[in-house]
Design brief:
The structure is a homodimer. Chain A is mainly alpha-helical and about 475 residues long. The radius of gyration of chain A is 22 Å and the shape is globular. In chain A, about 75% of the residues lie in helices and about 0% in strands. At the A-B interface, helix 3, helix 15, helix 16 and helix 17 of A face helix 3, helix 15, helix 16 and helix 17 of B.
Chain lengths: ~475, ~475
């Protein structure tokens, strides 16, 4: 399957108009088929627009955010929902949670706190090249516990340090790539994918996945549930994957004493943590603690994040302009707010339920275990065809979950398996998620190698999360 | 009264902390007084937060948008409303109308359409300095019919041309200021204030004012109502004000043939309108027509604006990044969404109603005409103390309207009088609305002159809108 282009072509390119035509054609086709019995015409129109939006965010004749905005506009213009109703996602607390967490990410980058954490890790662990990977990945994982902006975290904070470490050992794209840089790029990226999977805040669409899961199965995946269920397979993967890549794709330089010196001098240069860094650290710790303890105080996730942002603004760690100028945050806000509302409304139409009934009749007689394994594998490797976790999850998570549930799988097990798979499958390609083009784009690794190592890593993580995961979740009493 | 600073001081300045203290103190004071009978504790808490937010957006210890976000956060954290409810303004179609209109503004600037319109006007009318003002103001007024971003319109499009016309006649701040520049700056600014008043989309807070009006009085001011009621006094003011300023503050250069040449050569340089300009013009005309004909097709204002934005995106007149990078738009989105919801919820608490009852007992026996005139004058000149139309209207529009209505004034007349006054009062100072510091800041005019001319203009516009306005509205059957 050829990868869909992650970038947008110029509007004059004929291919763009063909893609638009295909998208509109699909919507028209669905409308022409007509609503099945029991589904209102409104509901069916919504379904057509939703499918067109998903196809659009895969084909990308325009950036994904714009495509979703077109979907919202289509819903309002056609009177499928009232204007207020079609915009309702933009006041959804979950959408604001993600928006605020993006603003907090900006503070972590701006104050230099992220960089400092990375250098502290490197000073402690960086004497060997594998230790460097653990140091970088440790930083990424710590940040992933509250920062869903994967590109700010792994792209903005970790990537520049990774590259400068490679440069420090005179490893550049080309003949010296394998000296150190190639290993670092592959290993850090593969572990970033694992960090994405480990937290509800690992990347932006996990919150969307949790929402989908709740709508279909009623299973509520809280911040804590996601983290506790993910921590054992997550940490094992983070330890094992760099080792395996070290075997398969060893760097020529294995001892890196220079890196710790580098970290030491960078820390010296940074001096004592600034007031801004302390404030940032405080927000980081308090927000994470409040998210973990929701059960006791009941303060909504979004309100906690909003409090964090307000604190950073009042103390001038963030300027108001930092918030307004955060294009990545506003991008997520638009697509996420649109999709959340569409998915929610689609649930209310009864189409998902109808689909479940049909699925149930198909999977009659299957052992649920076989169904779960088969469907998770198909779901996972379908990611070769997706340039975004969000597009993939939006298109496939709900129907796959419905089928697995219809086959009789325990709801929580099914939700967790598909949720983690939604992230881990980004290992496969150099366009699997937003950070892939960044690490691949450093040009240390050929596409062939990247895909080969991605495929092997996927087998490793599938083994770990597929065997250790269910055992751990059973131990936690989540199923069985 | 000393003007509140429009800029934000550094957070370390003691004055900032004093302002915060004052704001929190006011909220605490209101809470300490306790809810009057018939008002729930929740309602009273909302009132305290609302008043603190208004005081905050006047004192500005942080930018106005941030202050509103703090208010929203306070409402959610204190459990005054549910998180979803406190964020509800962000899915309000009116808020999206303003957001989308800002994006359309960006297209007008980006394609050069605004500039072209200005040069066409100058080529036609610019042979005399007073004609230049009419040309610039004509452009501004045409744009105001759909673009509520006053700073994009009068600041971004008109101001650079105004300044370059002054430069063309070698008029610079200092000894040559009075040659041409000083007159242009004062006259264009004063007429921009009138253009703001003439349309529901004249500047961002008119939509908010319309919402306030509807909540208190039930009077719905549609796009068409606002425009039709404003067009006669508006056009008369636009014709008279430049003339009066020409008498009081004449430029030395009164014949400006060079300006028309300048416009001609600028138009030559621009060549034929680009595809983008044609698309932009199309959107401009279609959006305005759809807004004027809402009564017949019933398509919501916001949906029309959203359609316009989507069309500009699909045709690549606007790039997605233009939308994401529009900080002014996101700023308005945050403060406007927050205020809309607070004001709406406050209406539901019954506090406004209670205030109306008290006001009614005070104004018993007043002739409603006297009450209306007195209160509009107080409202108008109170703007000396405000650096923003929004802050002023948010603080004073609702209570003043309530009192005027309690005195027995016809609702529609009272609403229109206060709505137009909310805009026209920006004439008074060099910080009266966002464009004032731009035109004043060009340093052609001393503060003393600016205030003197502003005061005189205010008397002229008050006379025109105060006499001609009610007559015209009576003719239209809006009252009496």
């Amino acid at each position: 399957m050829s990868p869909p282009s992650a970038t947008t072509d110029a509007p004059d390119t004929p291919s763009v108009w063909w893609r638009w035509l295909l998208i509109v054609g699909i919507a028209a086709g669905i409308l022409a088929v007509g609503a099945p019995e029991g589904i209102t015409p409104q509901g069916w129109r919504l379904f057509a627009i939703f499918i067109a939006t998903i196809v659009g965010s895969i084909l990308r004749p325009a950036p994904a955010g714009a495509v979703v905005l077109f979907g919202v506009c289509a819903i309002a213009v056609t009177g499928t929902m009232t204007p207020a109703d079609s915009l309702k996602g933009y006041s959804d607390p979950l959408v604001w949670l993600v928006l605020c967490a993006f603003f907090i990410s900006r503070g972590v980058m701006k104050t230099g706190l992220g960089e400092r954490i990375a250098y502290l890790f490197i000073r402690a662990l960086g004497r060997r090249s594998i230790g460097l990977v653990y140091a970088l990945v440790g930083t990424d994982t710590v940040l992933a516990s509250i920062l869903p902006s994967n590109s700010a975290r792994a792209g903005g904070v970790i990537f520049p340090i990774t590259r400068s470490l490679a440069h420090a050992y005179d490893s550049h794209p080309g003949v010296t790539a394998r000296r150190l840089g190639a290993y670092l790029m592959v290993a850090v990226y593969q572990c970033d994918v694992i960090a994405c999977a480990m937290f509800l805040t690992g990347q932006a669409s996990n919150v969307l996945i949790a929402r989908f899961a709740q709508e279909v199965s009623g299973v509520e995946v809280s911040y804590t549930t996601w983290m506790v269920a993910g921590i054992v397979p997550g940490i094992v993967s983070l330890l094992v994957v760099p080792l395996i890549l070290f075997r398969l794709y060893p760097p020529e330089v294995t001892h890196t004493p220079h890196a710790t010196e580098l970290a030491r001098s960078a820390l010296d240069r940074m001096g004592k943590p600034s007031r801004g860094e302390w404030m940032m650290l405080l927000v980081f710790v308090v927000v994470a603690l409040l998210w973990m303890t929701t059960r006791w105080h009941g303060i909504n996730y979004a309100v906690v994040a909003l409090l964090g942002v307000c604190f950073l603004l009042v103390t001038s760690v963030l300027e108001w302009d930092d918030v307004l100028a955060d294009r990545a945050a506003w991008d997520v806000f638009i697509w996420y707010g649109g999709l959340v509302r569409m998915a929610e409304a689609l649930g209310e139409t009864g189409i998902t339920k109808r689909f479940a009934e049909v699925a149930a009749s198909v999977t009659v007689g299957w052992a649920w275990g076989a169904a779960l394994i088969a469907l998770v594998l198909v779901y996972f490797y379908a990611h070769y065809a997706f340039a975004s976790i969000t597009a993939h999850a939006t298109a496939m998570f709900t129907p796959f979950l419905v089928v697995v549930l219809a086959a009789g799988a325990p709801p929580k097990l099914a939700v967790l398996a598909l949720a983690y798979a939604s992230n881990l499958d980004a290992a496969l390609t150099h366009y699997g998620t937003t950070t892939a083009p960044i690490y691949f784009g450093a040009r240390y690794v050929s596409q062939r190698e990247w895909w080969r190592l991605g495929l092997i890593t996927s087998l490793v993580t599938l083994a770990i999360w597929g065997i250790l995961g269910p055992l751990w979740w059973r131990l936690l009493g989540m199923w069985g």
